[in-house]
Specification:
alpha+beta; Arc Repressor Mutant, subunit A; 2 domains; 9 helices
Amino acid sequence: MTIFSGTNNDQLPGALFDQAFKGELDPKMSLEKYRHVAFIFSVLQNSTAVLIDLKSKEKYVYHGGLSLYFGFAEEKTSSIQSSDRTDGILPLIHPDDLKTRHLLELKLFHFIKDKNPKERLDFHIILIVRVLNKDKQYIPIELKIFYASSTDSIQLILYQYSFSSSVNHPSAPTIINSSNGQILSDHNFNSKKILTKREIQILKEIAIGRASKEISQRLFISKNTVDRHRQNIMEKLRVKSALEACHIAGMMGII
């Protein structure tokens, strides 16, 4: 197991960190129990399991056989690394698959945040991601993402990377309700709720190439207000540029 003091926030939707974190986790689904689940995944399924506590910004990484195969770890033993290290797997995931994961997490977070904590446990993400091996070849593996919450926040995220027979017959990336087998489709999500009406309006202006000054003149608001909206948009979509925001918003059907 590897413990990181802090997380690589660029790989997570910003909305996940922008929460109150005032509530407590259900004792039945405590951090220690999730750490045990992650450990069991690494042992029984030879997974690489990554558990993130958004409240404390700590990351726990459990290395199974998959980690040894890809070179994330040299053995299945515990180690502690510096806080500025990633979990090893993220830099090796195909960029398109990272983008897909990002979109799914944004959708899932905004879908379950208004549900009660017990209902939130029913939903998880399944997708196939391509990971670069030691021979510089992309190998498909299965990624499952689980959320756990306190009364007011999504606090824990568990990522399980595994070899799976499903990679030979890959399906579309999926958000599934494990209590009844329902696969959620796009009509289950109202992605436009992620941004305000004004932010969507400004993003549409950005998408057709207008600069902040021109947008401010067209909308009769100050340039500083436009710039503030631009920053809020990038934070909510967890991207680093307005161009990326337009691309992500387009893929999600926001604009």
